Amino acid sequence: MTTLSILIPTKNRSEYLDDILSSILKWERKDFEIIIQDNSDSNKTRNVVEKYLTDNRVKYYFSSEELSVIDNFEYAVNNSSGNIITAVGDDDGLLPAVMDISDWMLENAADAVLTDKADYVWPDLISKYNSGYNNSKLRLKKKICVEYKKIDPIEELRKVCNHGGTTMGLLPRIYYGLVKKDCLCKVQSLTGQFFPGPSPDMANAISLSLIVNNFYYLQYPAFIAGSSSKSTAGMGLKRKHVGSISEIKHLPKNTLSEWDELIPAFWSGPTIWAQSASCTIKKINPSYALNYNYLYARCYVFFPEKYKCIFDALKKGRGGFKSMITVLFWYIYNWKLRLDNLLPKIWRKFGKIDSTVIVVDEQPNISQAVKSLITHTKNYDLNKY
């Protein structure tokens, strides 16, 4: 029996994939599989994976046709055989503790578990804004807890909708979380897809929140969210996560034609997440609605150059003066959030350390970051509960 399927959809990022594979395959457990879903333009990824194929836990699938990121994820789920599914990027990391979490899920009839995560920035991510603060560092919260806390997914969905679909909050998901495959199959039976929106992470989170029953949160960093020069997270750190929808090749072909007219028509983190939330909700339960005014405010804060697109979407909502006042309120709120995020970086420049976070310097790659994270979590017994 395959307990856990670890999905790694990848394209043209073989240099990171090599590192995460070498890290995971050191695990002693045999009842998991790694699904590598490759849509690269060359044989580089295949050449990296080839040396690991003697290990029957590695399953490699290649598609030569140009795929959207959604299609690559869809294929990965279809090729999986585990009772439980998780997904990571090729520049991410995960701890062997995910196997203990999988065991707990099966023993306790849990549909999904969302864990905490640590953060790591690869040394190749050069940015004039963040390099000195982030590069080659592992960050994790000091507070760790091994008690599984039950979460109401619908209440979390309402919170996400109130924030305009710009955050995933504590929604269930396979990306940095674990979900029973049966739940993904229920989503597919309702919508025709495992990921019914243009951004797989948000589409997955929204759809699962409307499907799962027994959902838990674990404040334990079982995953490491990696940011590299080629990742969308890296693009965000370099302030390049913005563009024309029609020019973003990894999006599904119908993204622009199905775009919600109340969402500003440009590609960015907040707008593509909002669009994914909007179209997923419409396909499963249209009774939920996004707070578009929050979305407009966040876009004005982070993408002021797109003011015309934002205002055009706002006008279509016909909110009038009351809507403008609400946008102003959320605008101030988002500026506060942005300043709160900047403060730790400012403190660090003046030699002050954030007492809630552990920072581990000189981490050259994700496998070293995983070793460091294991060291910092070794005194926490996941089998306690």
Describe the model:
The protein has 385 residues and is of the alpha/beta class. The protein has one domain: Spore Coat Polysaccharide Biosynthesis Protein SpsA, Chain A (Alpha-Beta Complex). Helices cover 41% and strands 17% of the residues. The strands form 2 sheets. Strands 1, 2, 3, 4, 5, 6, 7, 8, 9, 10 and 13 form an 11-stranded mixed β-sheet that branches. Strands 11-12 form a two-stranded antiparallel ribbon. Strand 1, helix 1 (14-24) and strand 2 form a beta-alpha-beta unit. Helix 8 runs parallel beside helix 10 and helix 11 runs antiparallel to helix 12.
Task: Compute the CA-based radius of gyration.
Answer: 20 Å
Class computed from helices, strands and strand pairing: alpha/beta
In CATH, the architecture is Alpha-Beta Complex
- The domain count comes to 1
Reading the helices and strands in chain order gives EHEHEHEEHEHEEHEHHEHEEHHHHEH
| Number of helices, counting only DSSP H or I runs of 4 residues or more | 14
CATH topology: Spore Coat Polysaccharide Biosynthesis Protein SpsA, Chain A
Q: Mean pLDDT, nearest integer?
A: 92
Cα(first) to Cα(last) distance is 24 Å
Most strands sheet? 11 strands, mixed
Q: State the CATH class.
A: Alpha Beta
Query: Per the principal axes of the C-alpha atoms, what is the gross shape?
Result: globular
